[in-house]
Amino acid sequence: MNRTAQERSRIAPEVAARYEAVIGLEVHAQLQTQTKAFCACSTRFGDPPNSNTCPVCLGLPGALPVFNRKALELAIRASVALHGEIHERSQFARKNYFYPDLPKGYQISQYDLPLATGGWIDVELKGETKRIGITRLHVEEDAAKNLHEGFADSDRWSYIDFNRCGMPLVEIVSEPDIRTPAQAYEYLYALKQILEYAEVSDCNMENGSLRCDANVSVRLRGAEKFGTKAEVKNLNSFRYLAHALEYEIERQIGALESGGEIAQETRLWNVAAGRTEAMRSKEFAHDYRYFPDPDLLPVSAPQSLVAAVKRAMPELPDAKRARLQQEYGLTPYDAGVLAATRALADYFEASIRAGAAAKSTASWISVEMLRRLNDAGKDITACPVSPDALAELLAKIDAGEITAASGKKVFATMFETGKRAAEIIASGGLLQITDPSAVENVARAIIAKSPENVAKYRSGNEGVFKFFVGQVMRETRGQANPQLVNEVLKRVLGEP
User: Fold this and answer.
1) How far apart are CA 237 and CA 240, in angstroms?
2) What is this structure's pTM?
3) pLDDT tens-digit series, residues 315-325
4) Residue 148 is inside which H or E element, if any?
5) Contacts with 149 (C-beta within 8 Å, 6 or more apart), sequence order
6) Looking at 258, 280, 305, which one is the last position of a domain?
7) Which pLDDT tens digit goes with each residue over 130-158?
8) What's 365's DSSP letter?
9) Range of the structural domain that residue 358 is part of
10) Cα 322 versus chain centre, distance
11) Burial of 46 (0-12, 13-18, 19+ CB in 10 A)
């Protein structure tokens, strides 16, 4: 189990305060295409190993790649969403290095002529907004997946699943503008949200659709020159990213404080041990021996194509949050919760179209619904309560047919069974009691049993009033109208 940052830290706070981290992230996102980047093999996740392969993605001699147009359109969409400058001409290159998960012996990527450069993401942390620049966005193919088994050298086996090999990726490289693990976390969260909203990638980190490499160095505060950086590879969760950066920053500060030097190297995050570990020395660009891929034509992204992609762009997170506040009068907090995913925001607006009031709907979704979805391990797309069913329930609460307390019970049953509110209310006898005489009969019976509390109330102890309210609500199983209960009790208790 990972320890907290405070438990892991061996650097005195006053020493750590003298240093500043410089962090840049390289994020790889698989594009939501049905076929691979340069061949017609399926990108479907979970198929039997090595079943989605062909001569092209296996790198067999004589097989020629053809670029997937849908991948280009999605990469342009990502570039637009991130405010990047899209270049009308870009070029694929061969990036040469030996890994067993690249059967060709090189990776098809983009180098000196990427699809897009520039761009930015605004992140908010502790009430302050920080703009983090984006250096470039380029398209490339994914490598295969390595699977390792056993520990001892004599009993260690490695397997390769080439289904992932050739998947279309965009690599999004940030500027070294990030200074803390918390900023890195928020940047990655915002980037994931933008890509999901734009339907560029499903960003499923468990399936490997979104992966992150972090470049981190430290320097004395006020220094202009960057320190020597280490790259932490293949971080596939927000928590791992934050923990790896915390550890690596402390490791580098400790090394410098003890008179050592930082090696430029690639490191891996050991989850079980809670530390980064050296993997290999860090390559430079010339080590990859980039050169234009002779089998692929330059990529053309004419203005007409970019304009068409822009016209088809969905509403993005920042615009969604602003509109929810303006159109429905929501607080920034509620708008942020509801806009966390496009599906959740769509559910909210579908409930409004079905007749629900905006503020009460926002409250129910933010509290009751998200809590039950979290407990059930589901997201909003698998919610058993439809938007119109939620609107029906809230209408009954607003109309006074049932109390808010009864509404929670009804919602729980709706979530568990998928039944509608009207059916649950009728079968459970949950209609709100609004008959003054019925409430008065219950109130008088309770008052008759509590002469001591009646005396206290009439002598000025108004705190006892809550006792009577609670007893009436208990006796009516929470179905009495709360306002009516208060009115009846004050009248009856006030009698001589």
Assistant:
1) 5
2) 0.85
3) 999 999 999 99
4) strand 145-149
5) 156, 157, 158, 159
6) 305
7) 999 999 999 999 999 988 887 666 678 88
8) I
9) 315-428
10) 19
11) exposed
